[in-house]
Amino acid sequence: MLVDVRDNTAYNYGNIPGSVNIPLAELEDRIEGFRGKKVLVYCKRGEASALAVEKLKEEGIDADHLEEGYMGWLMSEIDEKEDGEAKPTAEDIELSLRKKFHKSIFCKFTKAVREYELVKPGDSICVCISGGKDSMLMAKCFQELKRHNKFEFEVKFLIMDPGYSPENRKLIEKNAERLGIPAVYYESDIFDSVFNVQKSPCYLCARMRRGHLYSKAKEMGCNKIALGHHYDDVIETILMGMLYGAQVQTMMPKLHSTNFEGMELIRPLYYVREDDIKAWRDYNGLHFIQCACKFTDTCSSCDSDGQSQSSRLEVKKLIREMKKTNQYVESNIFNSVTNVNLSTVIAYKQHGVMHNFLDDYDNATDVSED
């Protein structure tokens, strides 16, 4: 029995075929299911799985673990395929985007580009690649968009290394090569800079990475940076803002930079569903990193915006549960921030100024709810 003890988010991002996901915290409650079986446990790098084996052996379970974890397996998988095993080429992967995933991914990519005017004539766009499935797919979509070239714009690909471990760096390089992405690599020491920060290190890391990306992109002659946030990120952010931040806000499809004059941030995967990205990844036999942070094992403490991954995981589960009784819950959450009725809002903030419904209440003619 092959058991992955990472959290559900990490497991869904990539796992060893044939494994089952039982997070470490749930292991003791599942003991009876292990009896009479040889159990092989793995985590990201072999640390959490060692603890899991201790627990299982105390219960008399025949258990062992992968000492180098999922990352070790992944590295060996890459090496084996390099030794001659057939795998999809960049051309095959591009063809899948034009055929099998044209409607579910590329059409939604171009819809966001068109509706939110993310790409304009004369733009020079820096596609920022973290090494994960979302940013790698975004890079391929931009290459496909450039192939059609309905108007002149420029695309450049940037991979910033904030201090990746050697295996993460190797995996990113191999994936970029396999996908045919001519990326520029930029070295920084962000991970080392936040290593000793006690309060919100992930938030600080995310802020620093964003600043470095803007700076490098501007140096490269670009006026926009493109990030790989998708539809699910958007609706989760809306709920997280309400439930944990006591505010109604969303992840915008594009933003002007406040610190880098003339620069913009765009999110062209705004309409693309995460399940479709996973389907594209699995169809092409691709493996990506979930989080490149070298200081955590399961990386359950952070995500791409420095927000609490545990909070985001709770919101994912909440949406999944609500969908069981309301199939439109996801689109309703998304559309809620496009159908805001200010006449029914107690207060709102615009450009840093707070407005209250009482400001014009006595001068307004309201429609009664009676």
Question: Explain this structure to me?
Answer:
The protein is an alpha/beta fold. It has helices at residues 8-13, 47-58, 69-82, 90-98, 102-115, 133-148, 166-179, 190-194, 201-219, 231-245, 274-283, 309-323, 329-336; strands at residues 2-4, 20-21, 38-42, 62-65, 124-129, 154-161, 183-187, 224-226, 254-256, 264-266, 347-350, 353-356. It folds into 2 domains: 2-82, Rhodanese-like domain (Oxidized Rhodanese, domain 1, 3-Layer(aba) Sandwich), CATH 3.40.250; 90-315, HUPs (Rossmann fold, 3-Layer(aba) Sandwich). It has 13 helices and 12 strands. The strands form 3 sheets. Strands 7-6-5-8-10-9 form a 6-stranded mixed sheet, with helices on both faces. A 4-stranded parallel sheet has the order 2-1-3-4, with helices on one face. Strands 11-12 form a two-stranded antiparallel ribbon. A hairpin with a 2-residue loop joins β11 (347-350) and β12. α3 (69-82) crosses α7 (166-179), α10 (231-245) packs across α12 (309-323) and α10 packs across α13. The N and C termini lie far apart (63 Å).
